[in-house]
Write a structure and sequence with these properties.
Largest sheet: 4 strands, antiparallel
Structural class: mainly beta
Strand order of the largest sheet: 1-28-27-26
Radius of gyration: 36 Å
Number of strands: 28
Distance between the termini: 99 Å
Shape: elongated
Length: about 400
Amino acid sequence: MSPGLKRILLILALLTVSALLAWAIYTLFFKAAPPVIPLGGTRPVGTTGQLPGAGERVPGAGEIAPGAGQPGVLPAGGTTPLPPPSYFTPEPVSQIGTEAALFPSVDAGGDLRYHNPADGKFYQLLPNGQAQALSDQVFYNVNKVTWAKTANKAVLEYPDSSKIIYNFDKKTQATLPKHWEEFSFSPDSNEVAAKSLGLSPENRWLVVTKDDGTGTQLIEALGNNADRVNIDWSPSRQTVALSRTGAPQGADRQEVLFVGLNGENFKSTVVEGLDFMPQWSPSGKKLLYSVDSARTDFKPEIWVVNAYGDTIGSNRQNIKLNTWANKCSFGDDNTLFCAVPRDLPQGAGMSPKIADTIPDDLYKIDLKTGLQTNVVLGNNFHINSIFYDSVKNKVMFTDPNKKGVFQVNL
């Protein structure tokens, strides 16, 4: 082979090797990989000059593919596994009792007490949802119950106007006069205040008696104003009744007097409406009340006012919610939980039964800031009694259209 031919072959070999190396380098570093087809079977669409989307990651060993385990999505095996706990949304309201619960009240330990008309017994609802009888004694046809605040005692009233004080712990009872009405226990539960309504005005009195029915004392004469007095013993023990017999304030305003046990001359407060319904804060330093007036189309409206010592009548707050005081429960002196009917008709304040079929919304109210927060219930409820359990930090309520007791998961 001539030297010229060898030189030509050597040059061709070098060019071939260079071309192969260049192709290898291009393939390894610069050639774009084919687009990945995600699990949904659709090729991703990119935009010219931009990086394509990453698509969905293919799970590795021991991982669950996207969509697997979600309600309504079948995995490759064709069966639907139970969704993991994180997919569950807890119900905001749970039922903690299945029996009819009449005349409910929370005891000092935060447990609910109530009367079951089916068997005539009174029960305590334990934290595990079990009902435990307070007594083996049967009480049929009870039509009103007033509970003591710190003990298992109650005034029971019957259709024939018979009244007794029953001590569920001692299993003892004391008979009260038939002409006594509107009872309220003292903060220590050892005394009961009431209206003694004789036939003549001069025999109508605010009275206090011991829990065994003895030691009755006359506190204030009621005369012709018995229907303008609310017997409601304050937790501070300072006030035993609230009397709307102050100086006239106009058609839709009333002066409320605070009545003590010893004829004290307390300050008063003015309320902006009629149909006054009060409720004390846990300390007795504040008073929640509802009233209605022409200004509110005679729908109930709730207010809060200071109600202790020299502060009585100060810091009146209009909560601006149309509901009644007995549809609210204090969490503490600065926190309220209120059931508010969604759409009250005009005049509802004068006839609360109008709201018996109207669903309620639940609000938490901060009395310091005025902030009102809607507490989700997740269903339609008509709340006719509501309680805050400070021991377990929960709200409990009953619905006359549903059996049992309901608990709000705060």
